[in-house]
Structure formats: structure tokens, C-alpha cells
Design brief:
By secondary structure, the chain is α/β, with parallel strands linked by helices. Helices cover 18% and strands 27% of the residues. The protein has a domain of 146 residues: 3 Solenoid (Pectate Lyase C-like). The radius of gyration is 19 Å and the shape is globular.
Amino acid sequence: MQRHWLSLGCRRPGASDAHQGGTTVLTVSARGLDHVSLNRLLAEAAAAGERAVRVTEVLGHRYIGTGLGGELSLTLEGTPGEDLGAFMDGPTVRVLGNAQNAVGNTMNSGLIAIHGSAGDILGHSLRGGRIWVRGDVGYRVGIHTKAQPANGPAIVVGGAAGDFLGEYMAGGVLIVLGLTDQGRQRPVGNWLGTGMHGGTIYVRGSVPEHRLGKGAGREELTDADREELRRHLEPYCWEFCLDPDSLVSDSYTKLVPLTYRPYGRLYVSTVGEC
């Protein structure tokens, strides 16, 4: 293990080290370590008071950051495996590469910023915090995101999202920007917002009616929506060196739940029914 100076990407002036990216870090190589050993090492570093850790040569290691809390800043170089940041509560994780499935599974708080693309069920049952992806994502992203009265969960996807985005969504915000080649062709797949009963989905550009799932309906954007978009897109753009003003001012399709119990009659009979 070694200590180095790390400086990443575009950061807004005056940001703290957790967001600025310029700080001394403890550097660890994942080469030759299984996922159990790597995660034990990270937990020990966090318990010892380390504030910034950089892990190189990451290749499919699962459960990185699972259950970690506090203000740790974790930078991963390579491709982390399943369940990155599961149940995480506070740390900032940056992936300088792609990520596999189930990123941020049931995460409570913190930030996961992926500078590449990510797989399926990203943000599954996300309770809070933010997940940012510069590239594309797979299927069932944002499924079962939870409803929180304040500082609810938020996912921003820079490219395209697969089918069933926001399925059974109960709260939070999902934003799809369609900035990649795939995203420009088709930013979202089919069955968008199927069964959603809370939260809001914003898709930059237009979405054909046939892509909407049961339970999702359109609404016109308001000034409050523009402020909500700016609140999420400004820090996202600082991370990935993009222009927030042009993205915030662009046209979006806004999707909201049509009902808070889209499948209630499938599970509970009404009074008087046999």
C-alpha cells in the first residue's frame, strides 16, 4: 500500500475534498486479492480513519463498499463486480471504468459516480443518495427506489437505459440524458415506469407512447421541475465535465405515477367481491 496525490476530472471551485478530488490517498492494488480479502482491507482502512483510498487493478471484485459508512472517498480503477456500494451509508465512490450489475443495491446515502457504463438493476431498492453514470445502463434500473420525505434517492444516466426503467418506483428521481450514441438513437427502452407509484422520471427529448408501461403518465414540465433538474445536473456535470446550462434548458419528457396503487386489485379484493 502506498500514498499518492490524486486529482480527478472537473470540479467546481471551492468544493470540499470529497467532491474536489484533489487529496492524498492510500493506494491499494487488487491484483491477487479475492473479493473477501479486498473488502476486509477496505473496512479496516475505514475503521482506522482513512479518508481517501484508491484501488487499482479492480477486476470483477464483488461487494466493494458494501455496508461502508462515514465520509470515506473511494476511487476504483477497473471494473468492479456485482453489488458495488450495497447498503452503503455515506461514502463517495468513483469508478474510473465500467461497473457490473446491482450498483447501489439498497444504498442509504452517499454518492457512486461511474465514469463508464453499468449493468442491470442499478439502484435496486435505493433508499437515498445519488448514483451517476456517464455512459449507458442495462435493464430494470431504479426498480423499487424508495420514497423519502427529504433527500430522496436520485439516479442520473448520461446515455441510454434498457427496458423497465423505474419499474415499481416508489420515490426519488430518475434522469436519462441520452448523450451517448446509443442514447441518441433510443434513450429508453420499453415498459418505462411500469407499476410506478411514486417519484418522477425525466427523459431528455421525446418518448413514444408505446414505450410507456402501465402506471406511468405524462406531465408538462414546470419551473419547479427545471429547478429540480438543475439541482441534480449541476453536480453531475461538474463530475463529468459537461455543460449544465444547456442540459437543464433542453426539452424533457416528464413521467409520474397515474395512481399510487397500480396493481392493488391483483392482491386485495374490494369489499363485497367474491
